[in-house]
Amino acid sequence: MRWFGAVRTATGGMLRHKVQAVVLGMVLLVSTASATLGLALLAASNGPFQHAFSAQDGAHLSVTVNPARAGAGSLAATRSLHGVSAMAGPFGEATVQTQWNAQPFGQLTLVGRSSPGGPVDDVVLSAGHWVTGPGQIVLNGLSGGGGPTLGNTVSVAGLAHPVTLTVVGFASSITNSADGWVAPAEVSFLQAPGAPPSAQLLYRFTSAGTASQVRADLAEVTGALPPGTVTGSGSWLAAESQSDSNGAIMEPFVVAFALIGLAMAVLIVANVVSGAVAAGYYRIGVLKSIGLTPAQVVVAYLSRVGVPALAGCGLGVVAGNLLAVPVLHQSAGAYGVGSQLVPLWASVLAPAGMLVLTVLAALGPALRAGRLSATQAIAAGRAPASGRGYGAYRLASRLRLPRPVGMGLAAPFARPARTLVSLAAIAFGATAVIFAFGLSASLGRAAGIQTLSATVPVQIQQNSPGGGPNQVPTAAQDAAVTAALRAQPGTARFSEVFENQVKVPGVTGSVNAWAFSDDASWVGYGVITGHWYDAPGQVDVNTAFLTASGLSVGDTATVDTGTAQVTVHIVGEVFHPSSDPTLYGSAGTLPGLAVAANVDEWDVGLRPGVNAAGYVQAVNGELGSGSPWAATTQHDGGQFYSIAIGLVGLLALMVAVAAGLGVLNTVLMTTRDRVHDLGIFKALGMRPGQILTMVVCWVAGPAVVAAAIAAPVAVALNTATVHAMAGTAHTGIPASITQVFPPSRLALLSLAALAIAVIGALAPASWAARARPAVALRTE
Amino acid sequence: MIDHSVIDHGAPGDVIRVDGVTKAYQSDGLPALAGVSMSVAAGEVVAVMGPSGSGKSTLLNLIAGLDRPTAGTVTVAGRRIDSLGESALARFRARHVGIIFQFFNLLDDLTVEDNVLLPAQLAGASRRQARARAGELLEQMGIESFRDTYPARMSGGQRQRVAIARALVNQPEVLLADEPTGALDTATGQEIGRLLRSLATAGQTLVLVTHDPEMAERYAARVVHIVDGRLAGAGVGALR
Q1: How far is A648 from A641, CA to CA, in rounded Å?
Q2: Nearest-CA residue of chain B relative to A676?
Q3: Residue in B92, B108, B122 closest to A684 by CB
Q4: Angstrom distances, CA of residue A755 to CA of A748, A760, B198
Q5: Of B105, B117, B122, the CB nearest to A685
Q6: φ, ψ (nearest 5 deg) of residue B228
Q7: Please, are residues A605 and A492 in contact by the beta-carbon 8 Å criterion?
Q8: What is the pLDDT of residue A634?
Q9: Which of A358, A422, A598, B51 is 20 to 30 A removed from A760 (C-alpha atoms)?
Q10: Single pTM value for the model
Q11: pLDDT given at position B1
């Protein structure tokens, strides 16, 4: 007890170093928070769908039935079928055409559920609340992204009595079992006149891992019900495939950020802790001189860092979990899963790892302190590092720089190890920031190329109220669209797009073929290699086509359109992230495709200055409510990019904050080491502003070097990440997507290193500038 | 020999004037200085004496503008410095005050020349002028051959000469020396004392803090005694 009593007394004295204890605690707080978040993100990117599917009791099979054909008892009896492990429903279901903001909002499958939970398909509410009565709707997906928000109304068209639904919440079903949920009693009001009733049954099976097993499960259910009862079905494997595709695209940059965050946390903690112990050598000497044994000294110093470290780690894991809420909300949206949580093991491993790291970092200097004799420790604690950096000071004094600037720039050479740590922290932070800007720009370009938003602000799609999902527009209705577009003065150009499946020898299965009525080069597909077709007989293809066929740009292929066999010359590879092989050509090159049944859409380019929303309204007014076609400004595929860009920004900000804190710590340690020198400078007439400048310049030099390192590393990281993301999306990428760093922008972004350094150094620099000279001179 | 009649409350030609100065480091503790008033005329050499903890270094810090009084006023070179902001105070120190410390307070990572040049550069002197002045001073102090040497490689006496050169580089109206021989052996201390006396003879105003009565007697024109933060009396030194 007496042994520990002495240690306790010694430690209590040391805890009077409040600033250092606070900084140590803060660094561990931020490091533990970033480590928790990093581990959570790594966990989130590891089989996100599988984890969410398990946590949310996802439905292996969603079966749509006509309840009029089978009694409630028969439907309920399917719960005890062989292989069924759980069942939910029947839930009333209606497929409706909707409008939002007086614009077509598309066809939605709405399901009546009184609560989001249940034995199967536990729907996760992400905003608002669940429906509490008629007139309310909870939409599937996340709020924002250009769609309706909470409190907006969605009107249902084509009913005997118009129905308006207020959006009260947003929720996610892991298998997208519905587009929205309403109160069970609402469903009967949503049925179109004359349409048969419809209900949804959700199943989990003991075996549903493969498509054939799911087919067998469906057959089991179908066979147990009267003929004609089952009208549709959906397998969980389709949702898994879509989600895994998104997850795989996300994974490279999430992992990159997580690793940057973890590496920096380790670096900063090691530096802070070892610095804190080394800074106490003088006191160690004093303690030894009054009789503390080496073992007591080691324990005292481990205790010294232990208390703030424990507090920092404890608060850090809480902060990490709190930060993870919005980040994982974003990543869940991008992965297409309802929700993601910080796994318990991450909340344990992050603080435990940081504590172990703290102990290891403290152990070396503490053991050294234990071995030092009292006089050696006192000398080591008092004597400044001698002989280092003198040449740099000498050189700085010869330069025609203001003296505080010159002395500040020379200072890092006096403590090269500490300077390297600062430099590494700044480089990590700057890399993250530059990488984030680059990746955002790359993703923005990819989104622009994929959605064609810059060149095709308006599309005419089959999306009209009352049109019905399987209705084929007539040639007259198609002609009305062409006439309406020609009549609009805002129309710059348009192209009718036909789509159908074709056969290409060498490619297993069908190939999507898109035929354009006119010159479609203006549409602006991103060309990876070659060029957009500009002559009859030429086609472009996507990467998946080249992979599946083994062909290359410049080769020829035979295309069987169903009505003719043509030989086409592949002149370009275009950016189209999809695993489905697709080719693009003119209607003349692909005979038989340009028929009314194959019309998919019209791509419309507008004259400069024309408002897209107004144009859409005018075209829809011209087409009238009876047309199966409607103009829209919406583009699918944009939400993934906006979520991913948001996530990138958040992650970069976190890494930059941690880097700034690392700088703050090293500058703080240096100001403590040099407080006496600062007193001398002040006594000689150095003004507070000059002190501030000098201290900031301590990190300005390393920041410039860090910027020089970070810029090429970030460019390489961005290129590698974008290529990795593209690879998982089964596509190559146009060079323009990675060429997002013109020299001027890269130079500007490199200033992030300076910004991190200056912001990190500013607080200790201000403390140094404000310190009274007499106090500084007295401080050792 | 203490002559109480020597304690004065200032005259128009004073370079240093301290009026009713109190300095307390803790609000509830005894003040380090309590109601001290004194003045120093231009060209005068005053020694401030007292036992350890009497407040003499605190008084010097207040005159140097290194610290601020809790109450009272401090006027140096015609300017009240107790109410100046930190930047103005720093500028004032650079131009009007030279300080010599007991433990030299040289910057170990700068050469002798750079140590001497620094205050001149901070005061805005051109490098050429500053170098010329530094060269003169190093020669005057007899250490011109150590121009490119680092202080850690010099003896205590040599280092104090560098510190004196540094203190004089801006030709300050006031030179303040806090136990300038306290860290030196007797012979070296006497050398430094003679150097200070030659400066005083040349008209340099000097306030010398020391607890060495012999030094005070030998080198100062007037000796001020401080005990427990209060002026206890004054005497006459040999320089008068």
Answers
A1: 10
A2: B105
A3: B122
A4: 11, 8, 52
A5: B122
A6: 50, 40
A7: yes
A8: 58
A9: A358
A10: 0.70
A11: 40
Element spanning A599, H or E: strand A599-606
A210: helix, strand or coil: coil
Q: d(Cα A542, Cα A199) in Å, to the nearest integer? A: 40
The CATH classification number of B4-236 equals 3.40.50.300
Inter-chain CB proximity B86 and A770 less than 8 Å = yes
Chain A nearest-CA residue for B172: A684
3-class secondary-structure state, position B70: coil
Residue A517: the pLDDT is 86
Q: Distance (Å, rounded) from C-alpha A400 to C-alpha A413?
A: 19
Structure tokens that stand for B119 in this block: 């205050």
A399: nearest CA in chain B? B127
Interval A29-88: pLDDT, tens: 877 887 787 777 777 766 667 777 777 888 888 888 888 787 778 878 888 888 888 888
Single-letter amino acid code for the residue at B193? G
pLDDT at B8 over 50: no
Whether A648 contacts A440, CB under 8 Å: yes
ipTM above 0.85, yes or no: no
Closest of A565, A507, A509, A516 to residue A539, by C-alpha: A516
Kindly report, residue by residue over A602-636, the tens digit of the pLDDT: 889 888 888 888 888 888 888 876 777 888 775 54
Distance from CA of A40 to the nearest CA of B (A): 47
Q: Of A71-85, A158-172, A464-478, which gets the smallest average pLDDT?
A: A464-478
Residues in B touching A390 (Cβ below 8 Å): 109, 150
Residue (of A30, A27, A177) closest to A667 by Cα position: A27
- Containing A260, the helix (H) or strand (E) segment is helix A236-278
d(CA B238, CA B240): 5
| Token pair listed for A216 | 């067998």
Segments of A463-598 assigned E as strands? 491-502, 511-516, 527-530, 538-542, 556-560, 565-574, 582-586
Q: What number is the average pLDDT over the span B171-189?
A: 87
Q: Residues A28, A309: contact at Cβ < 8 Å?
A: yes
Q: How far apart are CA A586 and CA A535, in angstroms?
A: 9
Q: How many CB atoms lie within 10 A of CB B177?
A: 29
How far is residue A562 CA from its own chain's centroid?
A: 42
Chain A partners of B122 at a C-beta cutoff of 8 Å? 403, 684-687, 690
Checking if the pLDDT of A569 tops 50, the result is yes
Amino acid type, A779: T
Name residue B190's amino acid. Answer: Q
Element (H, E) at B225: strand B222-227
Range with the poorest average pLDDT among A485-499, A636-650, A707-721: A636-650
Report CA-CA distances (Å) from A766 to A399, A659, A664, A694.
Answer: 26, 19, 11, 11
The pLDDT value recorded for residue A293 is 75
- The amino acid that residue A69 corresponds to is R
Least confident span in A90-104, A733-747, B205-219: A90-104
Overall average pLDDT of the B175-182 stretch:
89
Interface test with B, best of A684, A692, A780 (most B CBs within 10 A): A684
Structure-token pair, residue A670? 């240096």
Kindly report whether the peptide bond that precedes residue A90 is cis, defined as omega within 30 degrees of 0. Answer: yes
CA distances (Å), origin A584, targets A499, A541, A551:
9, 6, 15
DSSP string, A113-170: -S-S-SSS--PEEEEE----STTEEEEES-S-TTS--TT-EEEEESSSS-EEEEEEEE
Residue A19, pLDDT score: 65
Q: What's the number of CA atoms in the CB half-sphere (13 Å) around residue B163?
A: 30
Higher pLDDT: A251 or A627? It is: A627
Strands B174-178 and B97-100: parallel
Collapsed DSSP state (helix, strand, coil) of residue A737:
helix
pLDDT tens figures, A486-519: 988 988 888 899 888 888 887 777 788 999 987 7
